[in-house]
């Protein structure tokens, strides 16, 4: 067998794999059809894209540090040691779920296949934990910007997708931030190094109102959101909250 036919075989193998993946994604998309639970395919009542038992079994991020959303295992969420030692530039984190169980699959479907149905489920779950007071709080919603190069590779900006719809539903404007500096991977860096790495990574276009919500799908270390919150404060925000769909435990990044 010569080199080029080996290559052809490899390409064909990859196509087979992607066809199989496509079938799985198609199946997953059917799971989010109206009237069907997004997780078990069972019938739902009402408007929610899930059934009551799947909803109850989701890995809700409770308790958690009210400041950074770090998952905790005590009876009540308390401000964690890391936030006490070095408070982040945001005041509060609302992270609906932990990045565990069915959650990573849902996020991957949304992120890598730009599935609007998976996105709608993510948004509905994020919103399900918000009180009326929470919903009335923001004066602007700012998505965490993707690096332009990553946006080109992936062709889909999931934070922008979520933030745009959330802003519309809350009736407040969408703010815009840009990444002005490429940042190395945060992997393997300690908290102080991450902070330095992300320093001045973002710039906000125009002025922001007083109360701003930052939106992303998944929050890992919080370093990116901390840097973006600092940029928002430089642009006029006085109070900054983080609203994300899911939170990984610290140092999971
Ligand atoms: Zn279900
Ligand atoms: Zn904390």
Describe the overall structure.
This protein has 253 residues and is α/β, with parallel strands linked by helices. 43% of the residues lie in helices and 15% in strands. The chain has ten helices and six strands, in the order αααβαααβααβαββαβ. The strands form two sheets. It has a four-stranded parallel beta sheet with strand order 1-6-5-2. The chain is globular and about 50 Å long. The N and C termini lie far apart (42 Å). One zinc ion (ZN) binds next to helix 3. Residues 37, 39-40, 42, 50-51, 54 line the site of one zinc ion (ZN).
Task: Write a compact overview of the structure shown.
The protein is an alpha/beta fold.
Helix content estimate: 40-55%
By DSSP (H or I, 4+ residues per run), the number of helices equals 10
Beta-strand content estimate: 5-15%
N-to-C order of helices and strands:
HHHEHHHEHHEHEEHE
Distance between the termini: 42 Å
Give the averaged pLDDT, no decimals.
Answer: 83
| Bound molecule kinds, no repeats | zinc ion
Overall number of strands: 6
Low-confidence stretches: 10-26
Radius of gyration over all CA atoms, rounded: 20 Å
List keywords for this structure.
253 residues; alpha/beta; four-stranded parallel sheet; two-stranded antiparallel sheet; 10 helices; globular; binds zinc ion
SSE diagram, text form:
Blueprint: H1 3-30, H2 52-57, H3 81-85, E1 92-98, H4 103-113, H5 116-128, H6 132-136, E2 140-143, H7 148-154, H8 158-170, E3 176-179, H9 191-198, E4 202-205, E5 211-219, H10 223-234, E6 239-247
Parallel strand pairs: 1-6, 2-5, 5-6
Antiparallel strand pairs: 3-4
The structure holds zinc ion (2 copies).
